[in-house]
């Protein structure tokens, strides 16, 4: 496994921070949003793939441990665990249609969560924070491929401007903490994530997982699948376990304050229609598929460049999409009772 090989290599080398040597371990890593799609993937890599090094402690939080919108609860949970490192994943997240209905709350809750986590990390002397941005925060009107330098170059798509502006402020805040205090707080920008423990809700889930649930339901009920929109928009999808491996690499090795895009290559971008083909094969669905073109497509594409990632990790092996969709569908069917539907 290349990722865990990288992790072990990083232990012997230490992580160099802008001129000074930062000792890697033993770390006490607090993962906010540890019960979600990405958090569960990191937990898997830490516990099952040798991602955790000797002497380290990893704590995975859910909203039950602390509501991070509340500064008092945020401070209390940091006091309890006294982390040296933080992976900040917690966010109010949702699918396209939920964002369109609720931009104000996506803005306010995420601004509060992010400020509470970053400021508390600062106050408690946390050495490194890796936060999670999203490729949907990039400007709507832009040139492609999008890269890390273009985050603030124009308004995000109107469908999710609340969430996007809150996420963009993490990057601004990271640079301010570095300028004022020299802190190494950085961010990663994944494209569309999917995998076990995703939100498979048909209304509010992410596109792939919602389509998996719709297709599974249609197969059971012998009906057609209704896909929202034309199926034409194109997306880069990243399997949650690949993302988990990359985030752990970033925590140990990535020295920049500027964010880094975590994505498969531009050549691996596929249309929703193509993704649907892979899902129907994985679930062995033989019924009809109807594309409802009266519904919004959202952004037609948001092709992101992974050139920076490839400069750091030229050989990182992304799981082939077909394989990752099959594993996610298998997980969903086997865990239907506990899956978020
Ligand atoms: N999924 C994607 O396609 C995608 C793409 C790009 C970036 N991201 C980013 O990746 C990160 C993780 O996303 P995900 O897909 O793993 O989301 P998810 O599965 O919905 O998980 C969200 C996590 O945040 C926690 N959370 C939500 N509100 C909270 C609050 N007020 N206080 C404390 N914890 C709270 C949830 O806890 P509970 O389980 O207790 O609710 C859960 O652990 C997010 O920052 C997201 O913006 C995701």
Could you give a quick summary of the protein structure above?
By secondary structure, the chain is an alpha/beta fold. Helix content is 42%, strand content 15%. α6 links the parallel β6 and β7.
Question: Would you kindly provide a written description of the structure presented here, covering whatever features stand out?
Answer:
- β3, α2 (37-48) and β4 form a beta-alpha-beta unit.
- The chain has helices spanning 2-13, 37-48, 71-81, 96-101, 103-123, 161-181, 207-221, 240-253, 272-282, 307-312, 321-334, and strands at residues 15-17, 20-22, 28-32, 57-60, 85-88, 128-132, 184-190, 192-194, 225-228, 234-235, 237-239, 260-262, 270-271, 289-292.
- The chain is globular and about 55 Å long.
- The chain contains 11 helices and 14 strands.
- The model is unreliable at 1-23 (pLDDT under 50).
- With 341 residues, the protein is an alpha/beta fold.
- It has a single domain (4-197, 236-267, 301-319), classed as Rossmann fold (3-Layer(aba) Sandwich), CATH 3.40.50.
- It has a 6-stranded parallel β-sheet, with helices on both faces. A two-stranded antiparallel sheet has the order 1-2.
- Residues 33-39, 62-64, 67-69, 89-93, 113, 132, 134, 190, 192-193, 199, 206 line the site of NADP nicotinamide-adenine-dinucleotide phosphate.
- Residues 29-265 form the NAD-dependent epimerase/dehydratase domain.
- One of its GO terms (biological process) is 'de novo' GDP-L-fucose biosynthetic process.
How does the helix and strand content classify structurally?
alpha/beta
Number of domains: 1
State the strand order across the main sheet. 4-3-5-6-7-12
Provide the gyration radius in Å. 20 Å
Q: From the 3D coordinates, which CATH architecture would you assign?
A: 3-Layer(aba) Sandwich
Based on Cα principal axes, name the global outline. Answer: globular
Largest sheet: 6 strands, parallel
Bound molecules: NADP nicotinamide-adenine-dinucleotide phosphate
CATH superfamily: NAD(P)-binding Rossmann-like Domain
Order of SSEs, N→C?
HEEEHEHEHHEHEEHEEEHEEHEHH
How many β-strand runs? 14
Q: Remind me, CATH topology?
A: Rossmann fold
Total helix count? 11
**Poorly predicted residue ranges:** 1-23
> Strand portion, in percent?
15-25%
Mean pLDDT: 91
């Amino acid at each position: 496994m290349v990722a865990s090989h990288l992790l072990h290599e990083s232990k012997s080398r230490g992580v160099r921070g802008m001129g000074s040597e930062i000792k890697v371990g033993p770390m006490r890593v607090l993962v906010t949003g540890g019960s979600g799609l990405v958090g569960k993937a990191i937990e898997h890599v830490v516990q099952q793939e040798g991602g955790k090094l000797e002497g380290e402690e990893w704590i995975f939080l859910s909203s039950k441990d602390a509501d991070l919108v509340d500064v008092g609860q945020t401070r209390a949970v940091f006091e309890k665990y006294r982390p040296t490192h933080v992976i900040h994943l917690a966010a109010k997240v949702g699918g396209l249609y939920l964002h369109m209905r609720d931009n104000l709350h996506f803005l306010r809750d995420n601004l509060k969560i992010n400020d509470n986590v970053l400021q508390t990390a600062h106050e408690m002397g946390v050495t490194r924070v890796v936060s999670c941005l999203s490729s949907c925060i990039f400007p709507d009107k832009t040139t492609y491929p999008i890269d890390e330098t273009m985050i603030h170059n124009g308004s995000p798509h109107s469908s999710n401007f609340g969430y996007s502006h809150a996420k963009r402020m993490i990057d601004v805040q990271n640079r301010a903490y570095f300028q004022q205090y020299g802190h190494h707080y950085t961010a990663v920008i994944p494209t569309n994530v999917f995998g076990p423990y995703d939100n498979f809700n048909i209304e509010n889930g992410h596109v792939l997982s919602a389509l998996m649930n719709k297709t599974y339901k249609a197969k059971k009920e012998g009906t057609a699948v209704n896909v929202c929109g034309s199926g034409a928009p194109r997306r880069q999808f990243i399997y949650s376990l690949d993302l988990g491996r990359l985030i752990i690499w970033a925590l140990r090795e990535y020295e920049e304050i500027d964010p880094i895009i975590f994505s498969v290559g531009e050549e691996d971008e596929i249309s929703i229609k193509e993704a649907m083909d892979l899902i129907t094969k994985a679930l062995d669905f033989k019924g009809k598929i109807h594309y409802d073109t009266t519904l919004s497509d959202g952004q037609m594409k948001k092709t992101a460049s992974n050139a920076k990632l490839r400069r750091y990790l030229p050989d990182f092996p992304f799981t082939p999409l077909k394989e990752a969709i099959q594993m996610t569908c298998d997980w969903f069917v086997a865990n239907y009772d506990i899956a978020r539907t």
